[in-house]
Amino acid sequence: MNLKITGHHIEVTPALHDYVTNKLDRVIRHFDHVTSVQVILSVAKLKQKAEVTLHVRGKDIYADADDADLYAAIDAVADKLDRQIVKHKEKTNNHVHERPSVTE
Fold it and tell me: Which domain holds residue 29?
């Protein structure tokens, strides 16, 4: 898995990098087919925003969250991604390819 963390108007410190990595490990634990993750952390006046794009086989999953605290925004986006990954995993696992029955 490739992890790319960038910051807009903010420097990505090692503490932020570790925090994002730990939060995304929880999300990726649910689904093994994540190929790459792109995280954008941005600051605009009083709004701190975290955006994450997960690239999985056949689909890109996007989530964003903003809050007054950047760590709270990262927590919120991790929760959103967790729900989306679980839903995507259930869809792919429940999709059963049945052979059409031949009635004579």
Answer: 2-94
User: pTM for the whole thing?
Assistant: 0.84
Phi, psi of 55 (to 5 degrees): -100, 115
Q: Which residue has better confidence, 32 or 41?
A: 41
Q: Is residue 99 part of a domain?
A: no
Label the pairing between strands 34-44 and 2-8: parallel
Contact 35, 1 (CB under 8 A): yes
Instruction: Identify the CATH number of the domain in which residue 36 sits.
Output: 3.30.160.100
Is 58 among the domain residues?
yes
